[in-house]
Structure formats: C-alpha cells, structure tokens
Design a protein that fits this description.
The structure holds two protein chains of two kinds.
Chain A (H helix, E strand, L loop, with lengths): L4 H14 L15 H19 L1 H22 L14 H7 L7 H18 L8 H5 L9 E5 L4 E8 L1 H8 L9 E13 L6 E5 L2 H11 L4 H9 L6 H15 L2 E6 L11
Helix pairs in contact in A: 2-3, 3-5, 4-5, 8-9, 9-10
Chain B lengths: L8 E4 L5 H6 L8 E5 L8 H11 L4 E4 L13 H14 L3 E5 L20 H18 L4 E3 L14 H12 L2 E5 H11 L3 H7 L5 E6 L3 E2 L4 E2 L8 H14 L4 E3 L8 H23 L1
Parallel strand pairs in B: 1-2, 1-10, 2-3, 3-4, 4-5, 5-6, 6-7, 7-10
Antiparallel strand pairs in B: 8-9
Helix pairs in contact in B: 4-5, 5-7, 7-8, 8-9
Classes of the chains: A alpha+beta, B alpha/beta.
Chain lengths: 268, 280
Amino acid sequence: MTIELPILQTKFQDRLLSGTEGIHQHLADGGPFMKVYEYAYVARQQEILAEQFPAVHTLLGDERFAQATAAYVLAHPPSVRSARWIGDHFAGWIAKNAAWSDQPMLADMAAFEWALGLAFDAPDDEILNMDALATVPPDVWPALTFQMHPAMHVVTLGYDVTTFQQAVAGDSKPDELPTALETPRSWAVWRNPETLIVRYRDLATSEAIALTAVRAGATFAALCEFLAEDDPENAHVMAAGFLREWLDAGWISGLGAEGMSWAPTAGD
Amino acid sequence: MNEGVLQGFGLGLRPQHFPDAIRTAPERPVDWFEIISENFMHVGGMPMRNLMNVRELYPMAMHGVSLSIGSPDALDDDYLAKLKILVNRVEPAVVSDHLCWTGAHGKNLHDLLPLPLTEETLNHVADRVMRVQDRLGRRIALENTSTYVTFKDDAMTEWAFIAGLLKKADCLLLLDVNNVYVSAFNHGFDAHAYLDGIPASRICQIHLAGHENNGDHIVDTHDAPVVDGVWSLYAEAIKRYGSVPTMIERDGNIPPFADLVAELDTARRTAARAVADTAA
C-alpha cells in the first residue's frame, strides 16, 4: 500500500529528530543504511558548531564538546536555511542547561565567539561619518535617533574571555583559563569599515550605558539624560564625544528623528 | 560582468582558496568557480568582498543546498527572495540545487534527504521547480544526490524519474557522477544504464567528488580525491554526452589549491581521452 508523500516525509524526519521507528516499514529491505542519515544529521551540525565555537571547544575538550553539541542539536532542531545560523541559540542554551550552567565562562565564551561571527559577515550597510551630523538642524537634535551598523554588537560578560579566545584563534595554546570579573563588563564587537577585519574593545560603564540606550532607540535627549544621572555637568559633552567615536569606528549607519518633519537625505 | 557560460573545468570555491583564485587568474588553471549559494545570502563583509573579487575574474555557478524542492512545506518566499538578490548580484551562468528535500514542518535538517520515486513525487517536484523558475526568471538545474535508502513505494528507476522531471518541469540537470557511482553501489543498479537513461541535451554541468567506501555501503563525503571507478564512469559520461563543464567538489580535508588544480587536470585528460575515443 502506498503512503502519501508528506506522511512519509514526516516519518522520515521524526526518525532523525526523535528516533521513532515509523519510517522503517516504508524503506526497501528495512533501510539497513538509514543510519547514514541519522549519523550525518548530528555530525554535520557538530562540525559547523566546532567551526563557530573553537574556543568553547578548547575549553571543553573533544569529548565534552561532542556531548554538549549533540545535546544542543537534539534540543534545537534547525529551522534556518543557512547552516551559518545553527549556533544561534548555543550560548543561551549553555547558560540555561543544567549540565553546563555551573560553568558560566562557557556561555560567555560562546556569546563572545557568536558576536565575532556576526560582526564578520553581517550584511553591508551605509557607514556615516561626522559630516552627517553637520546636516542635522539644531531643533532636531533632541529627537535624533541612531541606527547602528548590522556588524556592530555589544556583549556583556562575567569573564574576560578575550585573551583565551585570541590564543585559540591564533592556533596557540592559551596560557590561562578566562578569569572571572568582579562585575560584568561590556565589549563592543564590530568590523573595520575599510579592512573588514573584526575588532573588539571593552567599554567603560558610561559608554556601555550610552551604547545600550542608543541601540534600543533612545533619542539624543534621552541619551543625555541617562548620562546626566552620573555627571549632570558634562552629559552633553560626553554624549557628543561618544557619537564622534562611534562614527569614527563606523558603528552608525543611519539617523532618524521620529515625529519631526526632518529626515536625513541620501548621502547624509 | 555578465552571466557568461561555463566552459571547461571548475572548482567549488572555498574560503581558504580565495587568495589562490585571485593570484592564479592570469594563468587560468581553473576556468570557473562554483559557490554554495546559502553561504552568501544576506551576507556582507569580507566573505562578500572576496566573492565579488573572484567573480570579477571568473565565470561562476551558484549551487544551493536548502531549496528543499521536494519538501511538503510551501516554498519559502524569504529564501527565494534572498536567492534572487544574490543571483542578480553574482550573475551566475548556472543556478542549481539538489533533487531532494531538506526538512518538513518548518525544520531544515541540513542534509539532502531522499525522495520516493513515484508519480506523486514527480508531479510535486515538477510543479515546484516551475514555480521557482518563474520566481527567478530563469531555468534552474537539479543535481542527483547520493542516497542510502530506497522506498518500497518506488515505481520507477532514478534515471526514469529524472528524465521525466526534466521534461515536465523544463529544467536542467547537474549530473554528479560520483553520486551515480555511490547510489549504484548502495542500491545495486547499473550505473551505465543510469547514464544511458539521462537526456544528454539537459545536462549543463558535471560534479566529481571523493567518497568513503565502508565495504557494504559508500558515503558521499567530499573529503578525499576522486577514485578510479568514478574517473572511469566520468569517461563513460563524456563518451555519451560530449564535453560538459565539469568541476571537483571538495568540502572536507581541503588540500592546497595546487592539489585540486592537479586533480582537475586529471579531469581534463580523462575528458579529452574520452572525446578522442568517441571520435576514433
């Protein structure tokens, strides 16, 4: 008796995702080599995760990395068309999974490596420079908002994982494990607009607050208010200083002013 | 830059070979390159800059792995929109994917899963191919995959299925000779009958690759050189179809560029000998 194609495919997929037996009655000779698909489904994703998280791999070692990635694949059947996004939930999964959450440096390393990857191949976009700000009329400034470049990311970590990651990326053996920080710290991760090489630097608390606010859509006026909570005298100067630095680094792709008649023109 | 046509012998473009591709362009040891489409969809930065630098120097083919033409799910509009943007940017000579499905119910398992060879499947796939071709505004090629199971419901040979699909959907075939070899071994069919059953006029490109022979079955791994049996089958293909743009796919244990160029020279010699034998 024939079986409808979608039902057959559901049974086939269920075998790979959850090990059910329903497909075998429809396979010629019982499908002695169905195991090739079962093995490949996990192994291919593990290979990709190893490419995306080499420092997590080094921290865990081969055997434990294989255990972690196999469990992750089981928990997160992919729905994305590009294999590049298979690791999208890996850092969050490690942070919440009972088997690994007692080692927070793992989740921090995964989050940092994922951010490096995002900065590396994010879609291209406009990159504004200081000239763009010169076109903003004075009455628009309070309502001004900033669109960050798609390659610009911020990660907040409880461990300084950067030295360890850099050693692994450079194919050398890290001297020491990542060290726990007294308080969590934020890092900016982006790519140089000309060389396209990925960069990162840690952020002072005030800059991290400012950047988080701007990324969430805060206006220039709101940004100044945030900064004034710590330093009312210098808030405007600090905000302007941050903007200059961010523009120089190529972090800002667009300007807006919600509710205002002004809109940036092409080339601003 | 224009679409151009594929002629001669190509390689799958892998990131570690970007500098070699650019450096060797004047000597032309490789005539064209093929990219994995998904690796460059909605991507910028260094990967896109490298891709376009190579594209300026070589004709290119685009080869997808996630179209999932045989899936029970609706065609993915977002995927097709991104694919079309990349096609417009790269202007490839060939746009291809695989005769398979890669997931159902919103999942994508990142593997090339087998289809039962039935009229129902043929109609389903042909309808979707035509809709993809309408969407992209061009014909696509589908590649025969290596398979490790067949289905009790199979009602025709794989080559009859492919011949029927090419006619019904008016699409092209990317013939993977290694995959014919692998599936013939795994399922016990005659690889030469397969080659005889494929319409020559629809073959726009040939793939060659290495595999892993486990004794009772072969796995298409793309991580080793092409084996003698596949070279022989390739010669048989060229005797039947004449010169077809041919490339080597290597995805694991990737050797230095020069090694792949040397392997590509084997393809050139094998094809030249086959053409000469046919003329004699």
